[in-house]
Structure formats: C-alpha cells, structure tokens
Write a structure and sequence with these properties.
The complex is a heterodimer of chains A (293) and B (566). Chain A contains seven helices and eleven strands. Chain A is α/β, with parallel strands linked by helices and 293 residues long. Chain A has one domain: Rossmann fold. In chain A, helix 2 packs antiparallel against helix 5 and helix 3 packs across helix 4. Among the domains of chain B are: 108 residues, Butyryl-CoA Dehydrogenase, subunit A, domain 2 (Beta Barrel); 127 residues, Four Helix Bundle (Hemerythrin (Met), subunit A) (Up-down Bundle). In chain B, strands 3, 4, 5, 6, 7, 8 and 9 form a seven-stranded mixed sheet that branches. Chain B has a two-stranded antiparallel ribbon with strand order 1-2. The N and C termini of chain B lie far apart (56 Å). Classes of the chains: A alpha/beta (293), B alpha+beta (566).
Chain lengths: 293, 566
C-alpha cells in the first residue's frame, strides 16, 4: 500500500543568525541581509514524510512551495533528500500575501495536485512565526488537522487511520485521526536526514521555467525529453484557478501597522552572595511561583 | 552554514591534472545515458565533486564534529562476541549512509559514485577533521578497492553493492606475533573439500573495526610455509559467522574506532585472487591505499588542531590583549598553517598520481593499453609508490606536531580535558604508527631517494614557471633540491649499508622538505591569496630543517655507527 504525501515548504530568511542589519529602518525583515534557507520545521515535516515513504514503499512525496522563483531551491533541497517531485507557485499577483491568502493559494495548488492521503508541513515559519497556514489549509480543504506533531507513530492504510504523538505543554499527547489529513510538525521532531550524494548529482540542474534564461531553456528542451525530472513544475495564479480577490495583497486583510524593536530588560534585580541558605530560599521561591518545577 | 570544506581543499581539487584524471575515470562520459547521476562533461564532473564534498563538509561539521566528544568519552564495547559502537557513532553512520557517502570510488554499475581518489581524499580529510576515530570506520570502505581489483566478477557483484549501501569493512592482517612483520602471519586457512570452501582458524589482534560486515583476511593457506609466499587473501562475510570479538583494546586515542581481538573458529571464507599472492601483491595494494588514507586523516587532524588553536588564540586575553597578538603565539600558528598547507599539497599530489595510474589500470582490465598509455601508467604508478610513504610519514608527524602546538597555545587549559585539543593530541599519536610507522615509511622511501626518483620529480617541477613574486622562493626551493642531491651522494660515497640506514631518516626529511617547498611555491604562484604567506613561512622552516639534517649527515661516519648502538 503506497501513500500520496504532500509536504509544504517555505523558503525563509535565516533569522536564526541575525546580524545588526537584519531589520530595515522601516521595521521589516531585510531579506537581502539574510541568507534564504529551507524553513527548519518544514525539514522536520519532510523527514516524517520520508519515513512514511520508507515504511510504505511506492509512496510518493510532492513538495509544494509558494514564493519567488528562487524558492525552487527548497524544492531541490527536498529532492536531494528523497522527495519525488516539486511544485513552485510563483506569480506577481501572489506577492504580499498574509496567512489567509497564502493558505488559499496553497489549498488551490493542493486541489490541483489532487490525489493525497496526508499533507505535512512545519508548525510555523521562522520569518512570520504565525503557525496559521497549516491549520487554515486544513479548514479550506475540509480536512482533519493534527498540530504540534512530534512523531507519526503508526499509519494504517487499510483503515485509513494515523496515530500521532503531539508535543503539548508539559508533556506529550497521542492522538488518532482519519486520513486524509493535515499534520503540522514541531521542531522537536526528528531532524531531517542529510542530502544524498547521488540525488544531489541527479537533481542539481533541476529548475523551474522562471529560473532559465531563453538560451538555457532552448538548450534544456531536448534534454527534458530524456530527463523530465530536471523540470520542476511551475504554476501561476491562473494554473491553480485562483480567485484574484483572494490572493496576494488583495486577498490579505492583515496590515502591519508598525514594527517595534524590543530590547528585553530585567525588571528587577537582586544581588546574592551565593550562600547555601540563599540558594535554598531562592529555589523555594521559584518553586512557589511555578517558575521551575 | 559553516562547513569544513575550505578554500585550501577546493584549490587542491582544481589542479590542472584533474582534467586527465576525469578523462580517464569517466571514459568519454560513457555512463551519462545509463545513470541519472553520471556527469555529462568535465565541468559537470567537477561540479559534482564540489557539491558532494560540500555535502560531506556539512555532515562533518554539523553532525560528526558535535558528536566527537561523546564518542570519545563513551567508546565502543565488546558485547556477546561483537562490537557495540558508542551510541553517537550510530548517528554518524546513519548520516553518512543516508548521504550515500559509501563506495565513493566504486564504479556506478555496482552502485558507487565512481569518484577518483582525489575527491575521496578530500571527503576523508574532512571527516577526520570532525572526528579521527569515526574516520577510521568510514574510510575502511576503501578496502573494497582491493576486492574490486583482485576479486572475480562474481565476488564483485556480491560484495561491492553491499559496501556502496553502507556495510562496513575491515582488513584483518595483524596478529600477536605479526605486526610490522606480516610475513609471520599464522592464521590458518584450510580447504574444506566437503563444503567446497575455505575455513579460517586462529586469532587476529589490533583489528580496526574488527566486527565489520565484510573482512579481508590475510591467512596462511600453504601448510608448512613460514614466509610471505605462503599467505593468501580471503574474504570473510559476517553473515556466515565463525568469528567473534574477544576483546576491545583500551587505547590512548581514536576511541570511537573499535580495535578488536578476533577469534576465528572454522570460519567459512572465500579466496580473493590467487593463492600465495596475499601478502606480496594484495596486501601491498591494500596498504598503499590505507597509507594514503592515514595521510588524509593526518591532514584532517592537523587542520582541526590549527582551527582549535587559532580560535583560542583569538579569544584568550592575557596582559590586556588577545594572545594571538604576541609573536611567540602567532609564530607558532604561522608554522602550524605552513606545515598544514605544505603537507596537504603533498597529500593531494600523491592522490592525483594514484588516480592516473589506477584509472589506467582499470582501463587495462577491459582493453590493451596503447604504448603511450602504458608508459603513462608506469610513470604515475612509480610516482605514486614514491609519494605515498612521503605523504604518510610527513603528514602524520605534522599532525603530532600541530596537535602538540595546539595544546601549547591553549596553555594550562589545553592540559584540561575540557578542550578538544587534548583529544586531537591523543588521536594524532597513532597516525605515525599504524599502517607502517614513520620508520617503515622511510624504509619504503629510501630506494626512491637513493635511485634519484624524487630528484627527477623535483627537477621536473622546477621546469614549471612561477609568478615573479614567487620566483625568489622558487630559487630557494631549488637550492634544497641541490642539497638533497649532495647529501645523497655523500651517503652513497661512504659505501656502507649501515651508514645509509642510519642516515635514512635524515635523507627522508630533506626530501620531504624539498618536495613540499616546491609544491607550496607552485601553489602560491597559482593562488597567492591562499598560500603566499604559508609559502614564505614554509621556506624558512624547510631551509632550517634541511640545514639541520645536512649537518647531521655530514657528522655521521662509518666509524660512528657503533656509538649509536645501545
């Protein structure tokens, strides 16, 4: 029994290594100053997908992203790790989307992909930290959703059931859910496996149409007949039958009014000598206030 | 993301000889329509090497290196007659296997990457920088070269794909009474007529990764013989059973690598190649590959020792400033870097020579070589034989020196077990011992010193042109070659084998310094931004070393030999 798996991935500025020029004077993320990377929790999601594929040979993994043409890089990264195919939704009218417009666009793309048993994505992206897109897609497609997933414990393709361990406050929760569904994966899940040397060499020249110069496109055309995997599918708004009013800026009710730089400061401070008594008292105090324990 | 694949390694990979190596290895890109990961042309090939080494650098820095301390502390354990690796060794193995970094040099038809030895050496070095102990386990995959070269097609098809999928290997050579002297191997191989297979009985000691999946075993197949001509090479497959691990050695360094004592009880095995050629042909081939591997491991450790020392010197403040500002410290760092760069140049020159002759050897398995190809094969095979002991001996000594200096730069903190430099110091120590001690590398090299092979190579290198900036250094390097010639002649004139043996190590050091001086100047001429400083510093070092050894040899005489005996 094989599965059809869709993995949602996003190319994000690497906000984990922030320098002084990470923000523009206007308070938005200075994308030019930060390298673009595969959103970390989407990699965790990809690993869960790859494990399912190992467990159910013949399964296919399609990776879907929305972004600028260069976001095809995350598709290549996914192909290097074991994904089977990729889709990049890229189009000018799609720009400036908030989570509502993004989830609409991606759910339209998923409908176009069509056949799926499980949709996996990271819990949230490190540039926006909203954690809304996965759940919104589930709503739009009318699917069950399991969020904060740490591990897929089992999947029964006959009964169409999945058992997932969720990371929740103070512990874990094990839930069972019906297929098809949306699962968003937490950063505490298993890290994604490395790129594979052979796949790296196979897919290194895979591109979407928008990445090619006219000369490159011409040179590639005969090659694609023998090596169709070097073409990554590119879709525009029209390809996914998107309603122009629901995509991009037009479809985004969210407006960022202002962004403030917040510097954390200690509100109160106490100086201690470090005697055993003092430490005991402090521990007791922290326990009482439920800061630790 | 940080990555151990640095510009210096990248430079070595882009040497002009690579054109010929790729041409021979890819055979007009014959695999391009059959395998989706095979390259289309030279640029494509080099790009693939670059990307795969980058992938290895990523794993080395982000998975293997962070695990190194835990692996060192936990070490492997002997359990139920087998080995249980340190827990994080399994993580490392899982990562390298998923990354497909196995069977790197094997042909694609068996599932390999079909990489030449040069990019393989780069991956090897990078993994050793992260953890020299893990590098042992990983790099034993190159035993498969020997099986590929001397096994039959049936054996190739059965074993090579398994290694490409990540099964590990070991070479079972050493015994309690057969270390450097492998002619004394006693492990008994007898032919079992009933089962139509060979049976191994006896014991092996100091076997690195001795609980591996596929073993190459040196055993005595000819009853009644006592020397190397009675030894044959066997393949033992762990799936057959019959070999147990009796104990694991407790070592000074490379803790991640299990060193095993093995007991063979009627273990089923199959002959690899022809009887009686085990030591004289196959182990020699195996050893040359292993020695190049240790040279790469040594350069990796040297790099790690330098990295640790540099980072500490930039961070540590004394007398109101970072200690890197003090001449006593930055001089040590400069010398470490110069040895690292010069030693690495020697390593990759060796790897490239190996590549050319091995690729021609491989072509010769399918068709007769053209006369000029045969000549090329002979030339490079001889150069590889000459360079391998030079690269192994020198780089392993440098690894020790750099690890020592790395601790020195750390001062008292370096003596504490909290810092990585102490692990490097312990790990480095074996490099000048196993796969032939430095003293045995001298034995392997001395004939090429006295018969003028190195000198011819030096003179050939001097034909190359260098930049105007590097010309003065190149002239100084040439003087070192002159001195080598003079010293060799002086020793030869004494007409005493004993004196020559006594002077051998010193002649070897002069040779190595002269060779590296030539190579680093040529490198600096091509890439001054990377090597100009190292070339300057190395020439100062090399001249001093040569002067010392020159004087030492001048002071030796036949009459003095007795004074050196205990």
């Amino acid at each position: 029994m094989s599965l059809k798996i869709v993995v949602l991935a996003k190319q994000v500025p690497d906000t984990r290594n922030v320098g002084p020029d990470a923000m523009t004077p206007e308070g938005t993320v200075n994308r030019a100053a930060l390298p673009a990377v595969f959103n970390p929790e989407d990699l965790n999601a990809l690993e869960q997908a790859l494990r399912l594929k190992e467990q159910f040979p013949g399964s296919t993994i399609s990776v879907l992203t929305m972004g600028l043409p260069k976001s095809a890089e995350v598709i290549r990264e996914a192909l290097y790790r074991g994904a089977d195919q990729g889709y990049v939704v890229t189009d000018r009218p799609l720009g400036g989307a908030d989570t509502l417009a993004t989830s609409y666009t991606l759910s339209q793309a998923i409908k176009k992909i069509g056949d799926y048993d499980i949709i996996l994505g990271g819990r949230q992206a490190i540039d926006g930290d909203t954690a809304q897109v996965g759940p919104q897609i589930a709503e739009k497609l009318g699917l069950t959703q399991v969020t904060y997933a740490e591990e897929i414990l089992s999947l029964d393709p006959e009964k169409k059931k999945i058992v997932v361990k969720r990371h929740i406050d103070g512990g874990v929760e094990t839930v069972e859910a019906p297929l098809p569904l949306v699962v968003t994966v937490n950063g505490s899940a298993a890290p994604c496996r490395p790129r594979n040397a052979k796949r790296l060499m196979k897919y290194k020249n895979a591109t979407i149409a928008a990445e090619r110069t006219p000369e490159q496109a011409e040179a590639l055309a005969p090659v694609l007949e023998k090596k169709p995997y070097l073409n990554i599918t590119q879709w525009g708004a029209a390809d996914i039958d998107a309603d122009p009013a629901q995509i991009g800026k037009a479809g985004s009710p969210t407006n960022v009014k202002a962004v403030q730089n917040i510097v954390f400061k200690a509100k109160e401070s106490r100086t201690m000598t470090g005697s055993d008594d003092e430490i005991d008292t402090l521990i007791q105090e922290l326990l009482n206030e439920k800061i630790i324990g | 993301m940080a990555n151990y694949y640095n510009d210096e390694i990248k430079f070595q990979l882009n040497h002009p000889l690579m054109k010929r190596i790729v041409e021979l290895k890819e055979r007009s890109f014959a695999d391009k329509d059959e395998f989706d990961y095979a390259p289309q042309n030279f640029e494509d090939t080099m790009d693939s090497y670059d990307r795969v080494i980058d992938l290895a650098g990523d794993i080395a820095e982000n998975i293997i290196a962070p695990n190194a301390e835990d692996v060192d502390a936990e070490g492997p354990h002997c359990e139920n007659g087998g080995v249980r690796y340190a827990s994080k060794t399994y993580e490392n193995l899982d990562a390298t296997v998923k990354a497909g970094l196995n069977g790197v040099t094997m042909p694609r038809r068996y599932g390999g990457l079909n990489f030449p030895c040069t990019p393989y050496t780069a991956i090897n070095e990078i993994i050793a920088t992260a953890d020299a102990g893990f590098e042992n386990i990983w790099s034993l995959q190159d035993c498969i070269e020997t099986l590929y070269e001397f096994g039959d097609e049936d054996q190739r098809q059965r074993f090579i794909p398994r290694v490409c999928q990540g099964e590990t290997m070991s070479m079972d050579l050493t015994e309690p009474d057969a270390g450097s002297d492998l002619q004394s191997v006693m492990l008994k191989a007898t032919f079992d007529e009933k089962e139509n297979c060979w049976r191994l009985n006896g014991c092996k000691r100091f076997i690195t990764n001795g609980d591996s999946d596929i073993h190459l075993v040196l055993a005595r197949s000819e009853e009644g013989t006592k020397d190397g001509r009675g030894l044959s090479m066997f393949i033992y497959d762990k799936r057959q059973g019959g070999v147990t691990v009796r104990r694991i050695e407790n070592k000074l360094g490379i803790h991640g690598s299990p060193t095993c004592e093995l007991v063979y009880k009627n273990a089923k095995a199959e002959l690899c190649g022809d009887r009686k050629l085990g030591l004289i042909k196959y182990v020699m081939a195996l050893m040359n590959g292993a020695r190049l591997g240790i040279a790469a491991q040594s350069v990796g450790i040297s790099q790690a020792a330098y990295n640790e020392a540099l980072a500490y010197a930039k961070d540590r403040k004394q007398f109101g400033q970072e200690i890197i500002n003090f001449p006593a410290v930055y001089e040590m760092l400069a010398n470490m870097k110069a040895k690292l760069d010069a030693g690495r140049s020697l390593l990759y020159m060796t790897a490239r020579y190996v590549d050319i002759y091995k690729a021609l050897d491989d072509i010769a398995r399918e068709r007769k070589l053209e006369p000029e190809e045969r000549q090329e094969q002979k030339k490079y095979s001889r150069m590889a034989d000459a360079f391998t002991p030079l690269a192994k001996g020198t780089n392993s000594e440098y690894a020790n020196q750099n690890a020592y200096d790395s601790i020195q730069i750390h001062g008292g903190s370096g003596f504490m077990l909290e810092y990585a430099c102490q692990r490097l110091y312990r790990d480095a120590r074996i490099t000048s011992i196993y796969e032939g001690t430095t003293q045995l590398q001298v034995v392997a090299a001395i004939r090429y010193i006295t018969n003028g092979t190195y000198l011819t190579i030096l003179r050939e290198l001097e034909e190359e042109s260098v930049s105007a900036e590097m010309q003065p250094l190149f002239d100084r390097a040439k003087v070192l070659a002159d001195k080598l010639e003079a010293c060799v002649n002086a020793v030869k004139e004494a007409q005493s084998q004993e004196l020559q043996d006594l002077a051998a190590r010193h002649l070897y050091d002069i040779t190595a310094n002269a060779m590296m001086a030539h190579l680093i100047v040529l490198d600096a001429s091509r890439a001054p931004e990377l090597f100009a400083k190292s070339a300057q510093v190395f020439l100062n070092l090399a001249e001093a070393e040569v002067a010392k050894n020159e004087k030492y040899i001048a002071n030796l005489s036949v009459e003095q030999v007795e004074n050196y005996k205990a």
